[in-house]
Structure formats: structure tokens, C-alpha cells
Amino acid sequence: MAYWLFKTEAETFSWDQQKKKGAKGEPWSGVRNWTAAGNMKAMKKGDLGFFYHTGDEKAVVGIVEVIGEYRPDPTDDAGKFGLVVVKAVKDMPKPVTLAEVKANKKLAEMSLVKSFRLSVQPVRDNEWKEVCRMGGLK
Question: How confident is the model over 87-111, as a mean pLDDT?
């Protein structure tokens, strides 16, 4: 299993909206960056990801599971990009802020710190465990 981080503006698509989609999940569409698209191409069913609110909040607020692998994105008129489908798995008991991630020396190499503009990012096993610990998950 691999781990990921999905970034979204809470005003555009929030964690609460993701949870309301239930077991059918929601397509993670609209990604127009080749690196982020490559990350989505590497995803497999069952992979987990952090759901991250950008904007004012800047925090990991939940965990999603990939339930649909990479496929064409119908919102891309050019037909160059794709999407994955994710469903909400659980709330982060304590949201983990970007400031907390940056302050944690164990996370200094995390993509969220190094490539913070990338909308879909890989997360290493040790980073996953540390952010989960910080958020109150075992």
C-alpha cells in the first residue's frame, strides 16, 4: 500500500463534502499538473491519503481511500489528464497544521514541506505514521 496527500480549497470542496459522498466516493478531478497526474497514475485501490485543506486552514483534516484507479477526467476537454476516485475513511481527531508539519524535524523532507504547491503528493511510510501520530491516530 502507498500513501498520498490530496490538497483542496475547503471553499471549493471540503472534507465535510467528501464525507457526504459516502461509500461511492468522489472523483478527484481537475488536476492539471503532470507531476500530480503521474502520482495519481501510480495509485492503486486501497491506497490511503491525507485530505488536506489549503487556504486559511492549511491542515490535514481527514483520511481517504483510493477506490477507483486512474481513468480519463471528463472535465478535461483536451483529454490529457485523468482522475482517481476517493472515499472518506476517517476524520483526523486533531487536524495537523502545515505549521506543525514544518516544525517537526521528522517531516523536514516531506513533499508538503518541499513541494507545497503540488496538489497530489506522495507520502513516505514514516511520514504517514508521524502525521497520524500528531493527529491522534494510532
Answer: 98
